[in-house]
Amino acid sequence: MRERIVNFANKENQLINWIPWVRCRTSSDFEKELEILLGQFNLLLEKYPDALEKETVLKKTKALLEYAKKRGFTLSNCYSYSNTEKIPIKRILDIGKYSYGIRTLIDTSGFGPITITITEYTSTVSNYIVDKDQLNLELYAGKLQYLNMIHRESTGTFVYDGDVLSSFKPNILTKHL
Fold first, then answer.
1. What is the rounded distance in angstroms from the CA atom of residue 138 to the CA atom of residue 140?
2. Those residues with Cβ within 8 angstroms of residue 74's Cβ, 6 or more apart along the chain or in another chain
3. How far is residue 128's CA from residue 95's CA, in Å, rounded to a whole number?
4. Closest by CA position to 115, among listed 103, 129, 97
5. Residue by residue, what is the 3-state secondary structure of 125-151?
6. For residues 1-40, b (16+ Cβ closer than 10 Å) or e, as one string?
7. Largest CA distance in the chain
8. Which of 135, 71, 140, 70 has its CA nearest to residue 102?
9. In the chain, which residues have pLDDT < 50?
10. Total-model pTM
11. pLDDT tens track for 80-106
């Protein structure tokens, strides 16, 4: 996990022509991906224990806003922390790496909840995006909760609401909060 501003606009551009339908799901077929995204969140908290402190999040929010405005990116493509995991080539899909971004935001007054977005892009060795997973969390008054999780692939978008995510009870790792 590295602390630096990155943008995934090139990755998002590959998703533009994907089928736009959205379907809510309540099944457990995403539980493994949820655990992976929470693992990235844990990695962030281990490496940067102050990452969720209001002062740090406010500083990151202002830096992301300035970065996005200066370079003409949307804030939704920009992240304060990133990680890449290269994997041995899988014969079936030729999967080559997982790219992760974590964005922490708070309104610039410093009041209100902190929103946390953890995104994973799965890509082939030739950098073709296979799918995208995004977990959205909220931290308010020291309590961390799920907002939703979104899985995108070329055949559509699946949304899992916070109640469904909470029912799986994977620890959100509050020991670091």
1. 6
2. 9, 68
3. 9
4. 103
5. CCCCEEEEEEEEEEEECCEEEEEEEEE
6. beeebbbbeebbebbeebeeeeeeeeeeebeebbebbbeb
7. 50
8. 135
9. 174-177
10. 0.86
11. 999 998 876 655 567 778 999 999 999
